[in-house]
Amino acid sequence: MASPIRTVRRHHGFTLIELLVVVAIIALLIALLLPAVQSARAAARRTHCRNNLKQIGLALHNYHSTFLVFPPAFCLNKEDPTGTQGGQWSVHARILPYVEGFGLYDRINFDDQYTEGESPATDRVAVYICPSEVNDVGRGVEHYPVTYGFNGGTWMVWDNDTYFQGDGAFGPNSSGRPRDFRDGMSQTLGFAEVKAYTPYVRDGSDGTDTLPSSLTGLSAGSLKPDTGHTEWVDGRVHQTGFTSVFGPNAVTPIEGSGGATAVDGDYTSCREGKLPSTCTGPTYAAVTARSYHSGIVNVVFMDGSGHSISNEIDLQVWRRLSTSNEGIDVSTAQY
C-alpha cells in the first residue's frame, strides 16, 4: 500500500526589511506618544501646584476665622527691635495648623528665633513646595526651601524707621482684615510661585521710591548666590515673599558690590527689621514671582481663588493686583 502524500509547510520568519519596518513604526509611535505623556505630566504638576496654593488660601481664611485678622509676614517689637518675641516666624509657620501641620506647629516657640529649640526649620512641608521645583532639597541641618511667597506689594515693603508697611497684602506686623482690601480680595494677590535657591543682592544703600527698570544699576550690597527662598520659616520678603516690580518670570540680572554678578536674581536694599546699624529707612525689594511651568505663574488671591497668570500680563495690571487698597478695579483685565 502506497504511503500518503505529506504536505510540508515551511515557516518563514521576518525578513530584515520587515523587521526594520516594524522597529520604525514602533519608534514613530513612541515619538508621537512621548510628548503627549510629558504634556499630561506637566498639566498634572500645574494642577497639583494650584491645589497647593488653594490650600494656602484656605488656611489663610481659617487663620482669620480664629484670630479675626490675616497673619503677619513676621512680628517686630518697635520698643525692642533686637528682641526675639515673635521672632521672624513667617506666615507659613503661623498657618501650619490649617495645612495639617499640627506636629510641626507644636514644635514652635514664638518667643524664640526659628533657629533655636526644637525648630521645624529643616522639615519639608509638602504643601509649600511646587511639584515642578528642581531644587526640592534641604540644606544640611539649617533649613528647607519654599516655593510659594506672600504678596509683599510693589517695591517698598517696610520702613524700618516708621514701622510703616508697604502696599502689599502682607508685611511685618500686618493684621489685615477683609475690609482693609479696598480693591476687593478677589482682585488682590495673596501668594504666588517663587523659585527656591534664588540668587539675590541684599543690604545695600541703593533704593528710592521710584521703581527700577532693571537691577543692574543697584550694585551696593552683597551677592548671595543661592540663598533666596531657602527658609520657609523666615518671614522676610526675600525668603518667603515676592513683589511686583517686574512681571512673572521676568529675567532680572543682578550685580553685587565688587562686580559679583548673577544671570537672574532678586534685590533687597536691606533686610526688614535688622539692627539700625545695618538697615535704616525703607526696605525696597524686587523679588520676582517665578515658576517652572511654561509661560505662567500660579497664584492664589486673597479670596482663596487660584489662577494661572500669563508671563504676558500687562505690568501695570500685575502691579495693581499686588496692591491691597489702591482703589482701582482690574476685574476686567486679562491675566
Task: Give structural notes.
By secondary structure, the chain is of the alpha+beta class. The chain has one domain (52-321). It is built from five helices and 13 strands. The chain has a six-stranded mixed beta sheet with strand order 3-2-11-10-5-6. A hairpin with a 4-residue loop joins strand 12 (296-301) and strand 13. The longest helix is centred in the first third of the chain and has 52 residues, at 16-67. The N and C termini lie far apart (94 Å).
Compact summary:
The protein is of the alpha+beta class. It has helices spanning 16-67, 91-94, 102-106, 237-240, 315-321; strands at 148-151, 156-159, 164-165, 189-193, 198-202, 222-228, 241-242, 254-255, 261-262, 266-268, 282-286, 296-301, 306-310.
Kindly list the characteristics that best describe this protein:
alpha+beta, five-stranded mixed sheet, 5 helices, 13 strands, 21% helix
User: For the largest beta sheet, what order do the strands appear in spatially?
Assistant: 3-2-11-10-5-6
Largest beta-sheet details = 6 strands, mixed
Secondary structure: number of strands: 13
Helix content: 10-25%
Mean pLDDT reading: 86
Structural class: alpha+beta
Instruction: Name the quaternary structure.
Output: single chain
What is the approximate shape?
Answer: globular
How far apart are the termini? 94 Å
Topology:
Blueprint: H1 16-67, H2 91-94, H3 102-106, E1 148-151, E2 156-159, E3 164-165, E4 189-193, E5 198-202, E6 222-228, H4 237-240, E7 241-242, E8 254-255, E9 261-262, E10 266-268, E11 282-286, E12 296-301, E13 306-310, H5 315-321
Parallel strand pairs: 1-7, 5-10
Antiparallel strand pairs: 1-4, 2-3, 2-11, 4-12, 5-6, 8-9, 10-11, 12-13
